[in-house]
UniProtKB/TrEMBL annotation:
<keyword id="KW-0805">Transcription regulation</keyword>
<dbReference type="GO" id="GO:0005576">
    <property type="term" value="C:extracellular region"/>
</dbReference>
<dbReference type="GO" id="GO:0000977">
    <property type="term" value="F:RNA polymerase II transcription regulatory region sequence-specific DNA binding"/>
</dbReference>
<dbReference type="InterPro" id="IPR011598">
    <property type="entry name" value="bHLH_dom"/>
</dbReference>
<dbReference type="GO" id="GO:0046983">
    <property type="term" value="F:protein dimerization activity"/>
</dbReference>
<keyword id="KW-0804">Transcription</keyword>
<dbReference type="Pfam" id="PF00010">
    <property type="entry name" value="HLH"/>
</dbReference>
<dbReference type="InterPro" id="IPR036638">
    <property type="entry name" value="HLH_DNA-bd_sf"/>
</dbReference>
<dbReference type="GO" id="GO:0090575">
    <property type="term" value="C:RNA polymerase II transcription regulator complex"/>
</dbReference>
<dbReference type="GO" id="GO:0000981">
    <property type="term" value="F:DNA-binding transcription factor activity, RNA polymerase II-specific"/>
</dbReference>
<feature type="coiled-coil region">
    <location>
        <begin position="54"/>
        <end position="81"/>
    </location>
</feature>
<feature type="domain" description="BHLH">
    <location>
        <begin position="11"/>
        <end position="64"/>
    </location>
</feature>
<dbReference type="InterPro" id="IPR015660">
    <property type="entry name" value="MASH1/Ascl1a-like"/>
</dbReference>
<keyword id="KW-0539">Nucleus</keyword>
<protein>
    <submittedName>
        <fullName>Transcription factor bHLH162-like</fullName>
    </submittedName>
</protein>
<keyword id="KW-0175">Coiled coil</keyword>
Amino acid sequence: MADNFIYCPSSAKTDQEIIERNRRDEMKALLSQLHSLVPNQNSTEGETTLPDQLENATNYIKQLKENVEKLKEKREKLMGLGEKSTITSENKARVIVQVEAHLVGSSLEILLTTGSDYHLVLRQIIQLLQENGTEIVDINQSTVANRAFHKIIAQMAGEGTTLEGAKGERICERVKKFVSHYKDDQYTVDLD
């Protein structure tokens, strides 16, 4: 029975060679795929060596990371979060209060941008509008990255009354003047 088993050392060697060839083919395919993903490869210079391909891919990935960081900074700046010049030990930053107020037909539309903790400003503007004879019809609020965006729609209180041009403009100016003092002072909100 022991005579039936035939030991063939070349079979083990052949299996190892096949495994190694498959590994090399897989690595070659992956490197080819990596090479195709990296832009600005000059095929006119001939074949690029493997170390050069890897270096090009590494440099390209580093460049992409830098671009991502620059774009994040730009996004924060555009959203008003880039002003971190007044950071305190409690991780706070300066937040600017912005307002747009204008007449839309017979309604007054106010667009207010504040920090997410500026509920007092919103309440004070609503109170100011009510004191000037308007009725709040609708308020919408959205919060994005510690910024609150408010849209207030108001009309004159009472049936059949509308905001006439001069009175509506006067209310718009009062709202803008009220908010302007927040721009002059430094206010901080938590960024946590």
